[in-house]
Amino acid sequence: MAGPSKVVSKTARASTRMNKGVARPADLEGVTRLVSLDGGRGAYLFLPGGRTVRAMTNSAEFDEAVAALGELGLAAKVDAEIAEFVARWPKSAWPAVQARMAAAREAAAAVEEEPVPA
Fold first, then answer.
1. What is the pLDDT of residues 97-118, one digit of tens each?
2. Cβ within 8 Å of residue 26, ≥6 positions away
3. d(CA 65, CA 31)
4. Residue 36 lies in a domain
């Protein structure tokens, strides 16, 4: 019986090299966090600690991964990468992703601004 396949995709190799070990915030600045797939309908998200998530951009899994990056202080980096995808591929799914992320941020900000009844 043959052993496991030694063929590994370029994306898998890149994510393994990119996310070796536990990353510190200073290490995360120049690292690409998103790779666009299938015209923006999907994406690889490279999370610190070596975890790579492949998710559809309209899924809860994508939103959770982006939120996890935001909690690490990388929200501006992810927003910049999404804006770059929108500029590069304006007829893709990325403009809808960008609008959905902006609406989610506005909704979260509105909830935070509501006064708490005393």
1. 999 988 988 887 887 776 666 6
2. none
3. 16
4. yes
Q: Which are the contacts of 17, defined by CB distance < 8 A and separation ≥ 6?
A: none
Does the pLDDT at position 60 exceed 80? yes
Q: List 89's β-bridge partners, or say none.
A: none
The domain tally of the chain equals 1
Q: What is the pTM of this model?
A: 0.69
Burial class of residue 111, CB neighbours in 10 A (0-12, 13-18, 19+): exposed
Beta strand ranges found along the chain (DSSP E): 34-37, 42-46, 52-56
45 and 34 Cβ atoms separated by less than 8 Å:
yes
Spatial neighbors of 98 by CB under 8 A, at least 6 apart, are: 82, 83, 86
**Exposed e or buried b per residue across 27-52, where buried means at least 16 C-beta atoms within 10 angstroms of its C-beta:** ebeeeebbbbeeebebbbbbbbeeeb
Give the model's pLDDT for residue 109.
80
Q: Is residue 74 part of a domain?
A: yes
Report the amino acid identity of residue 96: A
Calculate the dihedral angle through the C-alpha atoms of 88, 74, 67, 95, rounding to the nearest 10 degrees: -20
